[in-house]
Amino acid sequence: MKKREGMIVKGVGGFYYVLIDGRIEECRAKGRFRKDGIVPMVGDKVKVDSERNLIEEILPRKNKLIRPPVANIDYLGIVIAPKNPVPDYMLIDKLIIYACTQNIEPIIIINKIDLADETLIEEIIDAYRGTNWAIFPVSCKDNRGIESLAHAFSDGIITLAGQSGVGKSSLLNTLYPSLDLEVGAISEKLKRGRHTTRYVELLSLPHGGMIVDTPGFSSISIDRIDLHTIKECYPDFEEYKYGCRFGLKCLHKSEPDCCVKDSVKKGLISRDRYDRYVRILEEVKESGVEYR
After folding, report:
1. CATH topology for 3-58?
2. What pLDDT is attached to residue 265?
3. Can you give the pLDDT at residue 180?
4. Which of these, 214, 215, 218, 184, lies nearest to 90 by C-alpha position?
5. Which residue ranges make up each domain of the chain?
6. Predicted pLDDT at 291
7. What is the pLDDT of residues 170-220, one digit of tens each?
8. Which CATH code for domain 227-286?
9. Cα–Cα distances in Å, from 79 out to 57, 166, 209?
10. In angstroms, rounded to a whole number, what is the distance separating the alpha carbons of residues 58 and 47?
11. CA distance 58 to 60
12. What is the pLDDT of residue 233?
């Protein structure tokens, strides 16, 4: 029996469409998956029995998201608009934390730059400059920055997330023009009952890489994440944390002789970002997660 490796790019009605050697093949999943309570997901790397077009094995997952339901995501594109809507920095920070804990690299995408002056755009860049995460100012209207963004994830799988109204659907349409995803809260098509059921699909992009064909979450809960794990999701604290009196056990919140807090006072770390970090710690602690 010859097995070939591929990736599930779509699943509809018990059939899975697997990309193998540049071609998409329609496959069924082996019956034991259902018996074992395992559901193949878009993004899964699998081994397929070529003679029967049967998925025999699901290879270990790097991560698994629930909304959208995909596996093995490499990049989370966090989409922000400089205005309309005003950036929700708490949501952005929580999305970054979520990405880091799922072994996903955050990419910050500042959309709608054609509608904002440089001051607003620089405010967002300054807020995250110390993180060393990639930041891409883009415009779907005139395609500024789109090619650079596409090249940034040409070696992996990306999904988008962010507030409602920041232009996630427009960005998807710009990156993959034939998608024709509805833009706006309720489209005329949707009102007429068309496309009311959508299946998640991975789309191959012209510059390489793949993108999930539907925007992801616009709200998120991180209340089950350990406090020290959250701390490690702040690369802007990295170079200062080793001088704390309590070393790597320091949460940089209420401990004395904390170099991170001193660096905030000196302006080396963003005060606003640090204050949001403390608020996130308090939210998570109130939810019942204990210190390690």
Report:
1. OB fold (Dihydrolipoamide Acetyltransferase, E2P) (2.40.50)
2. 96
3. 67
4. 218
5. 3-58, 75-212, 227-286
6. 46
7. 999 899 887 766 665 434 343 333 434 468 999 999 889 999 998 887 778
8. 1.10.40.50
9. 35, 6, 18
10. 7
11. 7
12. 95
Q: How far is CA 232 from CA 31, 72, 95, 239, 248, in A?
A: 41, 22, 14, 12, 10
Instruction: With beta carbons less than 8 A apart as the criterion, state whether 61 and 44 touch.
Output: yes
Count how many residues are written for the chain. Answer: 292
What architecture (CATH level 2) is domain 75-212?
A: 3-Layer(aba) Sandwich (3.40)
Please state at what angle helix 271-286 crosses helix 118-128, rounded to 10 degrees. Answer: 60
Decide the pairing of beta strands 3-12 and 15-20.
antiparallel
Give the pLDDT of residue 221.
81
Structure-token match 């708490």, residue found: 90
Distance from C-alpha of 236 to C-alpha of 271, rounded to nearest angstrom: 12
Of the candidates 222, 216, 241, 218, the one whose C-alpha atom is nearest the C-alpha of residue 284 is 222
| Cα separation values, 252 from 67, 70, 98, 167, 261, Å | 32, 35, 20, 35, 6
